[in-house]
Amino acid sequence: MSADRTDSLIRRMFDIAFNQGMFAVVDEVVAPDGVTHTPTWGTSNNREGLKQLIAMFRSAFPDLHCSVEDEINEGDKVAARWTIRGTHTGSFLGNSSTRRPIVVQGMIFARTANGQIAEGWTVLDQMSILQQLGIVPPSRH
To answer: Which of 44, 80, 111, 119 could tie 10 with a disulfide, CB 3.0–4.6 Å?
Structure first.
């Protein structure tokens, strides 16, 4: 896999699926039997579950924008650090709109095969989302 930013599977996923809502790109960048080890709030760990997760976020945060901050490609492995920004104007996990903005960081590590993501591990600061929305009180320091 080329380290060229335009060839990045991760950037394509965020730019096209998350930012533009064009879910067909998931079928292009994730292998048919690809596994997504992601905190998915009840969706399955495959391409369809990933599409559902993206749709859930886009519905809750219609102005959703994801930016890849850093990315490393090495052999059949790719790692990226990214940021999600958006305003909570739709239902999220059964919680009605708070109109609050979120800025949340995440990381993904993936194994590629035949030009697609064969397996991916995503870490997202879920607690931070809930705290920023006021659903969970902030931690006491």
So the answer is: 80
Distance CA 75, CA 106 (A): 22
Helix (H) or strand (E) holding 64: none
Q: How far apart are CA 73 and CA 5, in angstroms?
A: 10
Adjacent-strand bridge partners of 68: 82
Q: Are 76 and 39 in contact (CB under 8 A)?
A: no
Question: Which single residue is written with the structure tokens 């989302």?
Answer: 129
Is 137 exposed, middle or buried (CB count within 10 Å of its CB: 0-12, 13-18, 19+)?
Answer: exposed
| Residue count of the chain | 141
Q: What is the pLDDT of residues 17-63, one digit of tens each?
A: 999 999 999 999 999 999 988 766 778 889 999 999 999 999 999 99
- Model confidence, pTM: 0.87
What confidence category does residue 99 fall into, taking pLDDT thresholds of 50, 70 and 90? very high
- Third-level CATH fold of 5-132: Nuclear Transport Factor 2; Chain: A, (3.10.450)
